[in-house]
Write a structure and sequence with these properties.
alpha+beta; 6-stranded antiparallel sheet; FAD/NAD(P)-binding domain; Elongation Factor Tu (Ef-tu), domain 3; 2 domains; globular; 6-stranded mixed sheet
Length: 453
Amino acid sequence: MKTADITIIGAGLAGSEAAWQVAERGYSVALYEMRPHRATGAHASQDCAELVCSNSLGSNLPDRASGLLKAELRRMGSLCIACADQCAVPAGGALAVDRDGFAALVTQRLTEHPRIQLIREEVQALPPTPSIIASGPLTSEALAAALAAFTGQEHLFFFDAISPIVTADSINFDRAFRASRYDRSEQPGGDYINCPLTRDEYERFIDALLAAERIPLHAFELIMEQGVTAGAHRFFEGCLPVEIMAARGREALAFGPLRPVGLRDPRTERRPYAVLQLRQDNQAASLYNLVGFQTNLRFPEQKRVFGLIPGLEAAEYVRFGQMHRNTFIAAPRLLEPTLQFKSRSDLWCAGQITGAEGYAGNIATGLLAGINAARYRQGQPPCRLPRETMLGALCHYITHAPLDEFQPMKANFGILPPLDGPPIKGKRERAARYAERALHTLDTQRSDRDRQD
């Protein structure tokens, strides 16, 4: 392996962010990425920080947990959030990006940095030198085996799914309409394209969805080598395929990704029974993804079944939905809140493999791992973020949660410590107080640490 102060395995969101944080603090980085020489089955390019699933990084609103996390990341100098802001596309109160432009910009910033060397090789063993594992949920078999041998713990596995993408000019606007929920939009007419369904149309769609042919799950199962055993195959509850949701109850989609709350069909001036939303996927506004419509249907079935949704009758698909295996470690047993392994202080883990969920969460854990790797080289104690911050609370959760039902966790106000004082009834007011406390706590800790360092 190449000689560097810090070795980072994986150039996804977490690895890219970690590399930037280490390099900006004056240390050399060997950033390993196995693509394009070794494909993952989910990635489409060789760029760093490629967004495989949605192109949305979640809410930017200050009264949303994801918005608070991004506010913390901006304060802490996140590369990926800065690139996302630069590549943003209209998405109401959310931060959505042109996914190709975003990945290209992150790749450019990393490859132009004088202290970062991007190496296109697969890493099959844990380096003996200070390193960050950010290999992601699609960690290769060899590295997964090496990680399992090191930890002595069985990995946890789940299957994840991605949504289809269609061309904008193939959407039927005789039925579809533009609108954002509750008019949260800077674009006239709204940032989202909406496909409304009546009760009868919804029932026909559900019938077809339940009867549609799926891709056999075993096609995605990992054949583990070198004694690594796969845990129970299960779906991640936060990213269920629509056909799995529908099988749990005919109204599940109407109260889930197809819920029509805050929307009215301009043709009828009434709230539809259900609505499929499509979000802009590139800056040219030529591509749109089906929001929350992860699926494992066979590709011809996706075109047929989703064509029953008004507005998508003749939709042209540039990417069909599909499933892939995701892997994450037993973080409560293995990691400190600093993201160091308990059994090895010069080894960190970052990204979805830790059990942090969501793009912003992956970026955030990469940022913290990068900061702590640099502090390790400096001979400084690791940074432990207070639980009052969203990132501190997220790292505390994934390293302290009960293992029985441990699944990836995204930023949410429920993992923060309770507010002091009398209870606040208003949801937005309570969220604003959480955000105010988090950012004040973060600023105070950073000021104290800067004085100490």
